[in-house]
Amino acid sequence: MTLLVVGNVDARSVVDQINKTFGELKGKRETPAPVPTLSPLRAEAVSIMTDAVRQDRLSIMWDTPWQPIRESAALLRYWRADLAREALFWHVQQALSASNSKDIGLGFDCRVLYLRAQCAINIESPNDKLNSNLNLVARELAKVRDKGLPEERVQCVSGGKRNWSCRNCLPPMHELIPIF
Q1: What's domain 56-175's architecture?
Q2: Whole-structure pTM over 0.90, yes or no?
Q3: Is 80 exceeded by the pLDDT of residue 112?
Q4: Phi and psi, residue 14, nearest 5°
Protein backbone atom coordinates (compact mmCIF):
# COMPACT_ATOMS: atom_id res chain seq x y z
CA MET A 1 0.00 0.00 0.00
CA THR A 2 1.29 3.45 -0.88
CA LEU A 3 0.07 6.57 0.88
CA LEU A 4 0.66 9.86 -0.89
CA VAL A 5 0.26 13.05 1.13
CA VAL A 6 -0.11 16.22 -0.93
CA GLY A 7 -0.15 19.79 0.28
CA ASN A 8 1.24 21.77 3.17
CA VAL A 9 1.25 19.44 6.18
CA ASP A 10 3.27 19.05 9.34
CA ALA A 11 5.53 16.05 8.66
CA ARG A 12 5.79 15.03 12.33
CA SER A 13 2.04 14.88 12.88
CA VAL A 14 1.56 12.92 9.64
CA VAL A 15 4.22 10.37 10.67
CA ASP A 16 2.68 10.06 14.14
CA GLN A 17 -0.82 9.60 12.71
CA ILE A 18 0.41 7.00 10.20
CA ASN A 19 2.29 5.09 12.91
CA LYS A 20 -0.75 5.17 15.19
CA THR A 21 -3.13 3.99 12.46
CA PHE A 22 -0.96 1.47 10.63
CA GLY A 23 1.64 0.58 13.29
CA GLU A 24 0.21 -2.85 14.00
CA LEU A 25 0.41 -3.98 10.36
CA LYS A 26 3.15 -6.47 9.47
CA GLY A 27 5.23 -6.32 6.32
CA LYS A 28 7.90 -4.33 4.61
CA ARG A 29 7.63 -0.53 4.49
CA GLU A 30 9.08 1.54 1.70
CA THR A 31 9.23 5.25 1.09
CA PRO A 32 7.43 6.10 -2.15
CA ALA A 33 9.18 7.57 -5.16
CA PRO A 34 8.97 11.35 -5.38
CA VAL A 35 5.92 12.61 -7.27
CA PRO A 36 6.73 14.96 -10.17
CA THR A 37 5.23 18.43 -9.89
CA LEU A 38 4.81 21.33 -12.27
CA SER A 39 6.48 24.63 -11.60
CA PRO A 40 4.13 27.61 -11.15
CA LEU A 41 2.85 29.10 -14.42
CA ARG A 42 3.36 32.70 -15.46
CA ALA A 43 0.32 34.97 -15.25
CA GLU A 44 -0.56 34.82 -18.94
CA ALA A 45 -3.00 32.90 -21.10
CA VAL A 46 -1.88 29.32 -21.78
CA SER A 47 -3.32 26.84 -24.24
CA ILE A 48 -2.08 23.37 -25.06
CA MET A 49 -4.02 23.14 -28.34
CA THR A 50 -3.14 26.44 -30.04
CA ASP A 51 -0.89 29.49 -29.74
CA ALA A 52 -3.72 31.82 -30.77
CA VAL A 53 -4.99 32.33 -27.21
CA ARG A 54 -4.33 35.91 -26.13
CA GLN A 55 -6.46 36.31 -23.02
CA ASP A 56 -7.69 34.21 -20.15
CA ARG A 57 -11.02 32.41 -20.04
CA LEU A 58 -12.87 31.79 -16.82
CA SER A 59 -15.67 29.22 -17.03
CA ILE A 60 -18.35 28.96 -14.37
CA MET A 61 -19.83 25.50 -14.92
CA TRP A 62 -22.77 23.52 -13.59
CA ASP A 63 -24.56 20.38 -14.64
CA THR A 64 -27.93 18.76 -14.18
CA PRO A 65 -29.37 15.35 -15.04
CA TRP A 66 -30.55 15.11 -18.63
CA GLN A 67 -32.97 12.62 -20.11
CA PRO A 68 -33.69 12.15 -23.81
CA ILE A 69 -36.81 13.96 -24.99
CA ARG A 70 -39.48 11.29 -25.45
CA GLU A 71 -42.66 13.14 -24.53
CA SER A 72 -44.18 16.56 -24.93
CA ALA A 73 -43.68 17.50 -21.25
CA ALA A 74 -39.92 16.92 -21.54
CA LEU A 75 -39.86 18.96 -24.75
CA LEU A 76 -41.70 21.79 -22.99
CA ARG A 77 -39.20 21.73 -20.08
CA TYR A 78 -36.31 21.81 -22.54
CA TRP A 79 -37.90 24.69 -24.45
CA ARG A 80 -38.44 26.72 -21.26
CA ALA A 81 -34.87 26.11 -20.09
CA ASP A 82 -33.55 27.12 -23.51
CA LEU A 83 -35.57 30.35 -23.48
CA ALA A 84 -34.44 31.13 -19.93
CA ARG A 85 -30.76 30.61 -20.81
CA GLU A 86 -31.04 32.72 -23.92
CA ALA A 87 -32.92 35.54 -22.15
CA LEU A 88 -30.37 35.52 -19.34
CA PHE A 89 -27.47 35.59 -21.80
CA TRP A 90 -28.79 38.55 -23.79
CA HIS A 91 -29.73 40.41 -20.61
CA VAL A 92 -26.21 40.05 -19.18
CA GLN A 93 -24.69 40.84 -22.60
CA GLN A 94 -26.69 44.07 -22.88
CA ALA A 95 -25.84 45.05 -19.30
CA LEU A 96 -22.15 44.63 -20.09
CA SER A 97 -22.56 46.69 -23.26
CA ALA A 98 -24.26 49.43 -21.24
CA SER A 99 -21.34 49.49 -18.79
CA ASN A 100 -18.92 50.07 -21.70
CA SER A 101 -16.79 47.03 -20.90
CA LYS A 102 -14.66 46.73 -24.02
CA ASP A 103 -12.29 43.96 -23.00
CA ILE A 104 -14.72 41.25 -21.96
CA GLY A 105 -16.08 38.40 -24.01
CA LEU A 106 -19.13 36.61 -22.66
CA GLY A 107 -20.54 33.30 -23.81
CA PHE A 108 -23.05 30.77 -22.54
CA ASP A 109 -22.42 27.20 -23.61
CA CYS A 110 -24.49 24.08 -22.96
CA ARG A 111 -23.99 20.51 -24.11
CA VAL A 112 -25.01 17.03 -23.11
CA LEU A 113 -22.25 14.71 -21.89
CA TYR A 114 -23.04 11.25 -20.55
CA LEU A 115 -26.68 12.10 -19.75
CA ARG A 116 -25.65 15.29 -17.92
CA ALA A 117 -26.62 18.71 -19.26
CA GLN A 118 -23.42 20.67 -18.69
CA CYS A 119 -23.65 24.45 -18.97
CA ALA A 120 -21.05 27.17 -18.58
CA ILE A 121 -20.75 30.92 -18.50
CA ASN A 122 -17.46 31.74 -20.22
CA ILE A 123 -15.78 35.05 -19.48
CA GLU A 124 -12.82 35.98 -21.67
CA SER A 125 -10.77 38.86 -20.35
CA PRO A 126 -7.18 40.01 -19.95
CA ASN A 127 -5.65 38.62 -16.78
CA ASP A 128 -5.27 41.99 -15.06
CA LYS A 129 -8.99 42.80 -15.55
CA LEU A 130 -10.39 39.32 -14.94
CA ASN A 131 -11.49 40.00 -11.33
CA SER A 132 -13.24 43.27 -12.14
CA ASN A 133 -14.98 41.74 -15.18
CA LEU A 134 -16.04 38.72 -13.13
CA ASN A 135 -17.50 41.13 -10.55
CA LEU A 136 -19.50 42.87 -13.31
CA VAL A 137 -21.00 39.58 -14.46
CA ALA A 138 -21.61 38.41 -10.88
CA ARG A 139 -23.41 41.66 -9.97
CA GLU A 140 -25.66 41.35 -13.02
CA LEU A 141 -26.45 37.71 -12.25
CA ALA A 142 -27.25 38.69 -8.64
CA LYS A 143 -29.64 41.38 -9.92
CA VAL A 144 -31.40 38.78 -12.05
CA ARG A 145 -31.54 36.40 -9.09
CA ASP A 146 -33.06 39.08 -6.83
CA LYS A 147 -35.34 40.93 -9.27
CA GLY A 148 -35.81 38.49 -12.15
CA LEU A 149 -35.59 39.33 -15.84
CA PRO A 150 -37.62 42.21 -17.24
CA GLU A 151 -40.84 40.89 -18.79
CA GLU A 152 -40.21 42.62 -22.12
CA ARG A 153 -36.83 40.87 -22.46
CA VAL A 154 -38.41 37.46 -21.89
CA GLN A 155 -41.26 38.23 -24.30
CA CYS A 156 -38.80 39.48 -26.88
CA VAL A 157 -36.68 36.34 -26.70
CA SER A 158 -39.69 34.01 -26.79
CA GLY A 159 -41.19 35.97 -29.70
CA GLY A 160 -37.83 36.00 -31.42
CA LYS A 161 -37.58 32.23 -31.07
CA ARG A 162 -40.88 31.85 -32.88
CA ASN A 163 -40.38 34.25 -35.78
CA TRP A 164 -37.07 36.14 -35.33
CA SER A 165 -38.93 39.40 -35.79
CA CYS A 166 -37.92 41.17 -32.60
CA ARG A 167 -34.99 43.23 -33.87
CA ASN A 168 -34.59 45.60 -30.91
CA CYS A 169 -33.88 42.92 -28.26
CA LEU A 170 -32.01 40.27 -30.22
CA PRO A 171 -28.79 40.69 -32.17
CA PRO A 172 -28.54 39.98 -35.90
CA MET A 173 -28.89 36.35 -36.91
CA HIS A 174 -25.15 35.84 -37.52
CA GLU A 175 -24.39 36.76 -33.89
CA LEU A 176 -26.73 34.21 -32.33
CA ILE A 177 -24.96 31.44 -30.44
CA PRO A 178 -26.59 28.01 -30.18
CA ILE A 179 -27.23 27.23 -26.52
CA PHE A 180 -27.91 23.48 -26.63
Answers
A1: 2-Layer Sandwich (3.30)
A2: no
A3: yes
A4: -65, -45
